[in-house]
Amino acid sequence: MNFPKRVLERFFCFGVFTACLAACGDDGSSAGPEGGESSAVEESSSSDAAPFSSVVQLSSSADVLSSSSFTSSSSWSGAIGSSSADSSVAIKADSTKITYSLKPFDGPLSNPHKGFTVPTGGAWTFVPEFEYGPYGSLNNKAWDLVSYGSGYQQWNKLNPAKGVYDWTELEKLLNALAEHNMGYALRVLPYTPSFIKSDFPPQEDYDWTPPFVYEMGAKKIQIDLRGTEFHAYAPVWDDSIYIWAAKEFAKALAEKYDGDPRIEYIDVRTFGEWGEWHTSHMLGSVIPADPVLKDMLDYYASVFKKTQLVLPSNGFGDVYTHALDLGITKRDDGFIGIPGRPDTLLRAYNANLPTIAENIAGYRTMLTYDDLIPGGSQKWTAERWVDAITTAHLTYYVLDQDNDCGYYFYKDNKALADSMSKVIGYNFTVTRAELQTVMTPTAEKSADSAAGNVATSTLNITVKNTGVAPCFFDVYMVAEFVDSTGASLAQIGETVRIPKGTFKDGASKDFSFKAAGKASIATQSGVSVALSLYESEEVYNNGKNPTVRFDNDGLQGNNKLLLKSR
Prior knowledge:
- Helix content is 22%, strand content 27%.
- With 566 residues, it is an alpha/beta fold.
């Protein structure tokens, strides 16, 4: 049969385009498939730019060509030869395209494994009697921004005797946080000078090294508390018995909590005041030499295989380098008050690790500072706060370290804090979404096409990470057709896995979801498209709601994003 020239040209162009699609592999900018999941597909242009983003369906009697390059509702007919020399069939394929309206989510947006925290000293944080808590009488809306809890535990309470461990109170706190969809950033302190408020106070008030460590022969020395006339005692930090006991505790802690989803991260707080690896207020006390510090990091890294570990604020120089080599990230507790501190975290960010920070003091205290540098500390200002978050590419930040749980900070800075909840860490925003549906009649009815039609729906979206850091956990993206109640009708294509650390801040990625079926769900009345982000594929497969939210208007109560057509 002789085809018209224009039909042959279209058919030839389609064949070349299809061959190119088959020949062109991933450019390496997105993850490869793993475990049957599809990977992120990054394209150099949108679907509108491709002349024939087409779908071919084969029937027993004819090859069917359909073009989905049209906008709105359109169709194209072409005569295509069959296997018989004296017969032909003309097949018409209808193509529709829906372009969705995309706006930012209105209000603060907290998400897991990033963002702001406030002190959470115990499960009592969530009782109504605690006025600054989420259920307290002050109606503290700072909790709208809080995504995880943080605080310290005393070594002597968790490890009261040799080989004895008491996790009771910690478990209560972890469970209370988990009930509120929050994890916990754990610090176990061996010592605090904060409670040296008299000359030689009771040792258990400030020295939280378990007594059995000294009973085994570990040495301690007398120290002077800087700026006072008070005296106290402190461990000899590089004493061999002290080091042994600290490692034994690390081993027990790892056996109990490594990989526990309730734990956000763990600081290695073995040495110095508040476990910060310095002795600024303890005259006469000396932090161990670098080899001892590196050895302790090595040990922690050997027993903690899953949970993120953190180097305390005063781990610098070669020790900092060694920590990064082990995958241990860095925190800094001198923010706002000390110029240049955000820059110190850039090494951890460049090593593709989450960065963590805390201000040098509580918010209201910092408002009283005189800005005399050196010799003083900088005041808290909104500009400095924003600069600290963006310069250090922070993933985690203590909103306020006072026991008022951010109440006064949020009261003074609500609009700013709300906006920065979408800047700190990762923040996924859908910037383009189009659904193309091609209805292709088949020449013969079959088990797969009882109505004589095959519908192929392709959802093309672009997502941008508008935060200042990557997402440091695997994310699973799902597209679905849902009914008017938001209930899932069918998944569109396969689940897409985005490996941790790969979706960089500021980057945009294109994703495509394709589903074919005998009837067009997409065009049925009351059917919409929803996008979801999960922390694991199992959560989706088990029918649970997603925990990660897009920064787009249309978020439902179940955290799915309902796309709205223009």
